[in-house]
Amino acid sequence: MSTDFKRRVCLALFSLFLGLCSTGASAAPRWSILVLGDSLSAEYGLPRGTGWVALLEQKLHDEKINAQVINASISGETTSGGLTRLPALLRQHHPTHVVIELGANDALRGLALSATQSNLTTLVRACKAARAKVLLVGMQMPPNYGKRYTQDFAGLYPTIAKSENVALVPFFLKDVADRPDARDWFQPDATHPVAKAHPIILGNVWLALRPLLLGRQR
Predict the structure, then answer these.
(1) Going by CATH, does the domain composed of 30-213 fall within 3.40.50.1110?
(2) Exposed site from 101, 109, 136, 170, fewest CB < 10 Å?
(3) pTM of the entire predicted model
């Protein structure tokens, strides 16, 4: 075997090695996004792959943003349930970003607003302590809950976001629950949006999440 042939073989093997390393590096996600939510994020009553979290994964792919999404949402989840599960999720996934979409079930169960606020604040602080950027998703309740209650509940989210200096989605169901034909955008239970609403929901989340991923906010 000539010296020149050996040199060409070595160069070819070295190039192959570099290519494999490059492929492995590009495959590793830069960001890890944990979604901690309830049925609104768990595709309740929807065909698989049509909820906003699944659409987020596709959006990230289309935008060529190197990120993975972990959907840890559970139907019926409350803020206290999220607090119970969060430590293990942080240890397991080491997320760079956490989307907190909780609180609606607290209101539906008549839990004290002070408890909901305390739990949400603790969730935010735990994520920040784990060095994750936080996106808090604002929720609102129907007007039949009473003017004072609905105002106080909606006000929890901007209050926490401001005090904890985290990003906020002002209203998760904007342009869905507040539209004139809103009834046509919800399942028969009048609580969970149908599939056609979820691209709009993703748009509401994306407006706040994209700057966090690209380093243009907090």
Answers:
(1) yes
(2) 109
(3) 0.86
